[in-house]
Amino acid sequence: MSASELKWATEQRFQLIEYQAFWLGSLNRIDLTSHFGISAPQASKDIAAYQSRYPRNIQYDHGEKRYVVTEEFAPRFMELKPDVFLNDLLREVDISQYPARLPTEVVPIPKRLIDPLVLQALTQCIAHSQSVEILYHSMSPSKPDAIWRRITPHSFVTDGLRWYTRAYCHLDQKFKDFLLSRCLKSREPDAPRASVHDDTYWNESFEVHLVPNLALSSAQKKVVAKDYGMTDMKLTVSTRKAMLYYFKKRLRLDVAHLMDEPVECPLNIENKAAFDAAIEEATK
């Protein structure tokens, strides 16, 4: 029987066996019984079945009385993705697929408040291709007070710190990004004015060519290249033109030339002229 022919429940338990073995080094029956609520005999049966199929992945340590990972370990049911494992550690509530918990701290970031009813309205408008009026409080000096404006939203966007909705603004007659925390109220869903297919800069991509900061030493440049998995000291990242502004801000690429220490902003944009032109075009 191949891996693809296993029952879903068995595959999930095999996946947990691999996860525990690889990331934490070992496992025993309690890891399966506590997570899946199965009996100890069933857990023993699952581990034995896994070891029988993949004997080079785990072996029983009689001294530790646990199954330990081997040097020949080759995953069959999980992908070795560090980001997935590390993000799983950040969950405040244990709702993850895996039970691994290690000491983890997170730098506290103040959260922007989003009205759940406004978010509900935007979500439903996107799902059903509708427009909606929002009471929006921008930071524009020409609009010191919140004003009602109708928008046709088509997507949600995050830069890792803030959430926006990408929408056609009926007032300004163009696609814009609206910060969700500044959408104070919503009312009167109605017919749309445009669709995601009309959003040129959302549908067009731009390839950003990143290189180590030119002000770094040769040794430091090699460290940066290793950090980001560069090939020939270059990393190409493709992003929507509509998101280039946030890409630049999030990586602090707009202040690289202003930093006292290049190590504080380790990346430069190799194709900066084209990059700046694309941002100007997409935000005009």
CATH class term of the largest domain? Mainly Alpha
Number of helices: 9
Give the overall average pLDDT. Answer: 91
- Bin the strand percentage: 15-25%
H/E element sequence: HEHHEEHHEEEEEHEHEHEH
Structural notes for this entry:
- The model has no long low-confidence stretch (mean pLDDT 91).
- The protein is 33% helix and 23% strand.
- Helix 2 (29-36) packs across helix 3 (40-53).
- The chain has helices at residues 8-24, 29-36, 40-53, 82-89, 116-128, 200-203, 218-227, 244-250, 272-283; strands at residues 26-27, 58-61, 66-69, 131-136, 147-158, 163-169, 174-179, 183-190, 205-212, 235-240, 267-269.
- With 284 residues, it is α+β, with helices and mostly antiparallel strands.
List keywords for this structure.
single chain; 284 residues; alpha+beta; Arc Repressor Mutant, subunit A; SH3 type barrels; 3 domains; five-stranded antiparallel beta sheet; three-stranded antiparallel beta sheet; 33% helix; extended
Q: What layout of secondary structure does this protein have?
A:
Elements: H1 8-24, E1 26-27, H2 29-36, H3 40-53, E2 58-61, E3 66-69, H4 82-89, H5 116-128, E4 131-136, E5 147-158, E6 163-169, E7 174-179, E8 183-190, H6 200-203, E9 205-212, H7 218-227, E10 235-240, H8 244-250, E11 267-269, H9 272-283
Antiparallel strand pairs: 1-3, 2-3, 4-5, 4-8, 5-6, 6-7, 9-10, 9-11
Helix pairs in contact: 2-3
